[in-house]
UniProtKB/TrEMBL annotation:
Native source species: Paracerasibacillus soli
Molecular functions per Gene Ontology: transaminase activity
Name of the protein in question: Aspartate aminotransferase family protein
NCBIfam families per record: PRK00062.1 (NF000818)
Keyword Nuclease belongs to the record: no
Family matches, as CDD domains: OAT_like
Cofactor(s) named in the record: pyridoxal 5'-phosphate
PANTHER family hit by this protein: GLUTAMATE-1-SEMIALDEHYDE 2,1-AMINOMUTASE, GLUTAMATE-1-SEMIALDEHYDE 2,1-AMINOMUTASE 1, CHLOROPLASTIC-RELATED
Keywords linked to the UniProt accession: Aminotransferase, Pyridoxal phosphate, Transferase
InterPro entries referenced in this protein's UniProt entry, alphabetically: Aminotrans_3, Aminotrans_3_PPA_site, PyrdxlP-dep_Trfase, PyrdxlP-dep_Trfase_major, PyrdxlP-dep_Trfase_small
């Protein structure tokens, strides 16, 4: 963010003081790098429905919604009740053993998602994508993976490649160069990841054919960043070529799961991946991930008496053809109760239709407003998620974003914080079933005030 952008003097005193303290005890003052933005992140105190209140007492209409996880809004009573009932009825937070909710939610996901026959739970979307890649490698016997330029699949090295590369270093748009996004990479790791051009089917086919003998999987966000949608012809062609070349197709639906359709983007496109990673909305505001896929692939991680990596003694036999997957909190009963309550709310008659209608209404109103002020802006997204693109040109991939007016977007977003609209500057908007028409009207009004303020200051 440009250094001249800051909060109004004295408006965020408590947040600033807490951030200064946090930097003494927490690296960078934040517990996740995505929580940081300049001049400093805002510390929150409480929330309810579509609203957040910070430690300095300012109220916001929240469109970040924990990066899209809170599709029911903050503290929805049905989700809260489900958690309380789970705790009251079982008398514990977690069993550490199998329990019935694991089966209940697994059945639900199989019913909703065309590409899911069986399910394993994790504690984050990152863990789900990591397990997907491990299963794909075991299934194919190949090592290299393909991922698309600009796509994010979690913070581990094999996919933290070319997520946000400088265009001068990124190579040809037809055959992007694999670039590490952060330090701590080993040189050989970059060689294990092939970077592909999103929404360019012919170039993608050429690269997949060239490296087919090495590629275990291709992983993709069917809607990049939650707002740049794959073109129908592209996603269908990708499915066809991966099947032809014996490459596992992984849909990372952590962002799109339940937000673009109850059955994810795969239900919208009518394309069935081999493996599907889920997270965010699935946990109802609690940490969760899940991997689902074909029975043939998912059974690769099924345990047997001979496959316990922790067994010992003379009778111990550790099979090498089982993909070990475990986690103390996998399938946490409190989390699954919250997730099931969330899905139940979304399945109620008309709920998703109303949510999408409200989202489209906000998008249309914002586009009309910016046109009035002769500012090139259009919204880009699917379902209940979208982003504001400050450009006349359509956005088909990561490189197209470099032609947008990012500086103006940052100035607008900072001013929106002053006007009580919470979105991490530059991030996508996520709607919830708790957002009201009054929220939408206030949001449009806040945008108009932000536009006037920025234009008056020479923005």
């Amino acid at each position: 963010m440009p250094s001249h952008i800051s909060y109004a003097q004295g408006s965020k005193v408590q947040s600033f003081q807490l951030f200064q303290q946090a930097k003494e005890w927490i690296p960078g003052g934040v517990t996740a790098n995505i929580k940081h933005f300049s001049p400093h992140p805002i510390f929150m105190k409480c929330a309810k429905g579509s609203k957040l209140i910070d430690v300095d007492g300012q109220e916001y209409i929240d469109y970040l919604l924990c990066y899209g996880a809170l599709i029911t809004g903050h503290g929805h009573q049905a989700v809260t009740n489900a958690v309380k009932e789970q705790l009251d009825q079982t008398g514990t937070t977690v069993f550490g053993t199998p329990h019935e909710l694991e089966l209940t939610l697994a059945k639900k996901l199989v019913d909703l998602y065309p590409g899911i026959d069986m399910v394993r739970y994790t504690n984050s979307g990152l863990e789900a994508t990591l397990l997907a890649i491990r299963l794909a490698r075991a299934y194919t016997g190949k090592d290299k993976i393909g991922k698309f330029e600009g796509h994010y699949h979690g913070g581990f090295n094999h996919v933290l490649v070319s997520v946000n590369p400088e265009l001068d270093d990124a190579g040809s748009k037809y055959e992007p160069i694999a670039l590490q996004n952060r330090v701590a990479f080993q040189k050989h790791e970059l060689k294990q990841t092939l970077v592909l051009p999103f929404n360019d089917l012919q170039s993608t086919k050429n690269l997949l054919r060239k490296y087919a003998s090495e590629l275990a999987a291709v992983i993709i966000e069917p809607v990049q960043g939650g707002f740049i949608r794959a073109e129908q012809e592209f996603i269908e062609g990708l499915r066809e070529i991966t099947e032809e070349l014996n490459i596992v197709l992984i849909f990372d639906e952590v962002k799109t799961g339940f937000r673009v359709h109850l059955g994810g983007a795969q239900s919208v496109y009518g394309v069935k991946p081999d493996l599907t990673a889920l997270g965010k909305v699935l946990g109802g505001g609690y940490p969760i991930g899940a991997l689902g896929g074909s029975k043939e692939m998912m059974m690769l991680c099924a345990p047997t008496d001979e496959s316990d990596v922790f067994s010992f003694g003379q009778s111990s036999r550790k099979k090498t053809d089982v993909v070990f997957h475990s986690g103390t909190y996998n399938g946490h009963p409190v989390v699954l109760a919250a997730g099931l309550a969330t899905i139940s709310l979304l399945e109620e008659n008309g709920v998703m239709e109303v949510l999408f209608a409200k989202t489209n209404h906000l998008r249309t109103a914002l586009e009309k407003l910016y046109t009035t002020y002769q500012i090139p802006m259009h919204t880009c997204g699917m379902g209940s998620i979208f982003n504001l693109i400050f450009s006349k040109n359509p956005i088909r991939n990561y490189r197209d974003l470099w032609g947008t007016n990012h500086d103006l977007r940052m100035k607008i977003d900072m001013e929106l914080l002053h006007q009580g609209i919470y979105i991490k500057p530059g991030n996508r908007y996520s709607m919830s079933i708790s957002h009201t028409q009054q929220d939408i009207d206030k949001t449009v009004e806040a945008h108009e005030k932000a536009i006037k303020k920025v234009l008056s200051s020479g923005g």
